[in-house]
Fold this sequence. Notes:
Elements: E1 11-13, H1 18-23, E2 26-30, E3 34-38, E4 45-49, E5 58-62, H2 74-84, E6 88-92, E7 101-103, H3 110-115
Bound molecules: zinc ion (2 copies).
Amino acid sequence: MQCSCGGRSDLVEVGQYYTEIVAGMRCLDTGDWVKLLQCPGCGQLWRTDAWDKYQTLYALKLSSLEDWESVDMETLIKTRMVENHSGLDTSPCLAMDCKQFALKGRAYCVDHFYETGARA
Ligand SMILES: [Zn+2]
Ligand SMILES: [Zn+2]
């Protein structure tokens, strides 16, 4: 069976392709707003956010089933957020006592922006 796992990066924003990606996979387990999926074509494991139409959703390739629920996606998502903003601004984050630079075009750094619930 043909699948597209190989052509995808490790961390994929799946909001627009949710049905396409998730519907074709086997759900092995579910956790707290996360699912463990396996591609029936190549066996690739994916940890994905549960569907939420108001949220940016991500899927991450996993190399093993072990502790799949506690895999840290936050760091990877923050890295992606910085990329999405083409980097950092020259002005500091507006949050109290924060020493980091804001994301380009935003008032807050990636950590504080993430705290507001932003994922993109
Ligand atoms: Zn696959
Ligand atoms: Zn900050």
